[in-house]
Design brief:
Elements (H helix, E strand, L loop, with lengths): L1 H10 L10 E4 L6 E2 L7 E8 L3 E8 L10 E7 L19 H11 L6 E2 L4 E3 L2 E9 L5 E9 L14 E10 L4 H10 L1 E2 L47 H16 L19 H13 L21
Antiparallel strand pairs: 1-3, 2-11, 3-4, 4-5, 5-10, 6-8, 7-8, 8-9, 9-10
Length: 303
């Protein structure tokens, strides 16, 4: 009887529970947002860990490359450890091999070239890589860790860190346009804890501001160096090109050939006659002959 009762209870099944560690939250609750005019936010997935909270801000995608454009934000701080399910994230800097592993997962089959230039946005230094697909899409991957370092981080203050990942593929945007997205995003979340401050203390103003003898000029927007394109010509080749252009500019231009009949020189001037004859031989217009002699006319008035 007991066995039959147990079998009857098992036949009813058990309720299915969803994983409450990963949820969909409204777009206005996103930890970070792309720049104004950037790709639209389509959804926000939030995952809780024992030492951090992660959000994948999914962005609009028009490229043919497989994968989802996203802005991933991982905020480390005083989270509720009981909601993380015992799993934690790595809070420190990632080695280069780990970044390569991330790109192989997010860009399957795309050759990504890591930039060797030092770049930084309003949150500090970051790294990035660019690649092009066989279908003509341009792909971009940026990574950044925001944390106060050095004397700014004390034993009890300026704690915490933020990890940022930006994955973009676009069929029309240039490499410079995708790189600009790494400069324009904004973090809009924080812990209400006086000891949590991954940004560090604000920097003082420049000492030259308002000082006489230190002029400040407007600076035009600088051009970005491309990573995915082939290397540019060497400096020697550019110098040769500039030299040849300078030589071409120094060469005097040829004057156009004269048009019209040639006026013969006065009689007795042999030098002028020779020059006129040479000039006449180069003309394409025939000479106009002198009128024939008329009876009774002077010899000097006719040919």
């Amino acid at each position: 009887m007991v066995a039959v009762a147990l079998l009857a209870g098992c036949s009813k099944g058990m309720p299915l529970r969803s994983d409450d560690q990963t949820t969909i939250v409204p777009a206005e609750q996103a930890f970070a947002l792309p720049e104004v005019g950037g790709p639209a936010v389509t959804a926000v997935l939030q995952t809780r860990y024992s030492n951090a909270t992660q959000q994948d801000v999914l962005l609009a995608n028009s490229a043919g490359t497989s994968g989802q454009n996203m802005l991933r934000i991982q905020i480390f701080g005083p989270v509720e450890t009981s909601l993380g399910g015992g799993k934690g994230l790595r809070p420190g800097y990632l080695p280069a091999k780990n970044v390569q592993a991330e790109m192989r997962e997010l860009f399957p089959g795309v050759r990504m070239r890591t930039s060797s230039y030092f770049v930084q946005n309003k949150y500090g230094a970051f790294g990035y890589a660019v690649g092009r697909t066989s279908g003509g899409d341009t792909c971009f991957y940026g990574w950044q860790r925001i944390t106060s370092t050095g004397f700014a981080q004390t034993w009890i203050g300026n704690k915490g860190s933020i990890q940022v990942r930006l994955r973009l593929c676009d069929e029309t945007a240039s490499e410079q346009r995708l790189l600009q997205s790494m400069y324009g995003y904004t973090i809009s979340a924080s812990f209400k804890d006086r000891n949590w401050n991954p940004f560090g203390e604000p920097l003082p103003p420049d000492e030259t501001l308002g000082r006489p003898g230190a002029p400040i000029y407007p600076i035009s927007a600088s051009r970005f160096e491309t990573v995915s394109e082939e290397p540019q010509p060497t400096r020697q080749a550019a110098a040769r090109t500039a030299s040849s252009s300078s030589t071409a500019q120094q060469t005097p231009a040829q004057l156009p050939a004269p048009v019209g009949p040639v006026v013969p020189p006065p009689p007795g001037d042999s030098v002028a006659s020779s020059a006129a004859g040479a000039a006449a031989s180069r003309q394409t217009v025939p000479l106009v002959p002198a009128p024939p002699c008329q009876p009774g006319a002077a010899q000097t008035a006719c040919n």
